[in-house]
Please model this.
Amino acid sequence: MHTIQAGTVELSYADFGEGLPVLCVHGFPLDHSMWQGQYTSSMPGVRWIVPDLRGFGASQVSSGLVTMAQYADDLAALLDAMGVDGPVVYCGLSMGGYVGWEMADRHRQRLAAMIFCDTRAASDTREMARGRQLLADRVLADGPEPLVGSMLSRLFHESAIASQSGIVKSTKRVMETTSRQGIAAALQGMAQRRDSRTLAATLHLPVLLLCGVDDGITPLTEMEELARTMPQATLVPIPDAAHMAPLENPQAVNRAIEEFLRRI
Ligand code: MLT
Model:
């Protein structure tokens, strides 16, 4: 892992391979390692740039709420600091997808194409936003424990949970060691995020949508609906996967990404 000053924050990131830069942005409350099935795959002609967002993994934690726009600005600053001037392919899972909409809005000139995994364009309902605020307060008081219990079983396919597979154990470790401030900042930022469905419907970039067929957090039906509204989107359902499709079924995800990159 490398660290670099990216605008107002020090970010940690992995950098593998050579070729077209693919910027992979993790979900909540995770870190770069959820993309291990991609950056260890040695896909020809691809450079994987895989950061930990502000407040996650080994990146600097800042105080107060962090908006999806702030994460996107951090990523643009990261590319600047790394000297990556040409367009990149943005690839985000779930919260990484929410950041992707802001990237498309604020830094469109940096993007060649986009990949959205297990995510949505709609904002939170009032009830969801209230739940996030309560959870943020609880995590600040008690640490990540309450979140780990409630989230882990929703991230993975039930067979992975039942067998306590390596990916479940390592994801649990990541969640348990994430800073409580980083978690609370993201929960509050997600609660405030705007509705990006209009932006999605006018996004004239090649887009690949991926979704685990058993995803209960961002269901396949919702991503199918999103695909119908987007001008240049292709949806590929990922079998044997729930919310963490790139980690649960890296072969199918990598096949879809490789084919997409060949076409753009
Ligand atoms: C994620 O995986 O990033 C989260 O499930 C996103 C969310 O809580 O909306």
